[in-house]
C-alpha cells in the first residue's frame, strides 16, 4: 500500500463517516423539528381553546351589558314620559280656563264643609281667589297660598288644616294611580 492509496482510503473513509454524520444530524434535526411542530401545535390548540372560551365569555358579558344598557334606556325613557305626563296634568290644573274648574272648586268646598267643624279660615290660591269668594261664603278668607289651584282650610287657632290644593290632590292621586298610568302608557 502506497501512501497515495492510504490517503485515498482515509479520505474515502472520512467522506463516508462525514456522510453518515451528516445523515444522522439531518435525521436528528427532522426529529427535533417534528417534536417542535407537535409541541407548537399543542400550544396553539390549547391557546385556541382558551381564546375561544375567553371570546365566548366576553361575548356573553357584552350581550348582558348591552341588555342592561337597553333596559336602563327604556327605564329612563319611561321615567321621562311619566314625568312629562305629570307635568302635563299640572299644566292643565294650573290653567285658569280649565273646563269644569268652578264645579271642581264647589265640590272641594262641599267636601271641606263635611270635614270641618267650627270656625275655619279658607286660604285660597291666587288663581282661584275670586271663584272661592263666591263658592265659600261660610268661611272667612285668609292669605293666599302657593299652588296650581284650590285652597287650604284651617281652624282659626291653626290646630287643624285640610290641604285641598290641586297640587296636593294631584300628588296623592298620582301616587295611588301610578301603576295604572304606567300600564296605560306602556302596556
Outline:
The protein has 187 residues and is α+β, with helices and mostly antiparallel strands. The chain contains four helices and four strands, in the order H-H-E-H-E-E-E-H.
Structure description:
- By secondary structure, this protein is α+β, with helices and mostly antiparallel strands.
- The protein folds into two domains: 1-93; 99-186, 2-Layer Sandwich (hypothetical protein PF0899 fold), CATH 3.30.2320.
- Helix content is 72%, strand content 8%.
- It has helices at residues 3-93, 101-115, 129-135, 166-186; strands spanning 120-124, 140-141, 151-155, 161-163.
- The chain has a four-stranded mixed β-sheet.
- The longest helix has 91 residues, at 3-93.
- The relative contact order is 0.08.
- The model has no long low-confidence stretch (mean pLDDT 88).
Q: Portion of residues in helices?
A: over 70%
Stretches with pLDDT under 50, minimum 5 residues = none
Overall number of domains = 2
Specify the overall morphology. rod-shaped
The count of helical stretches stands at 4
Counted beta strands: 4
Radius of gyration: 47 Å
What is the oligomer described by this structure? single chain
Largest sheet: 4 strands, mixed
- Percent in strands: 5-15%
Task: Please list the strands of the largest sheet in the order they lie side by side.
Answer: 2-1-3-4
Rounded mean pLDDT score: 88
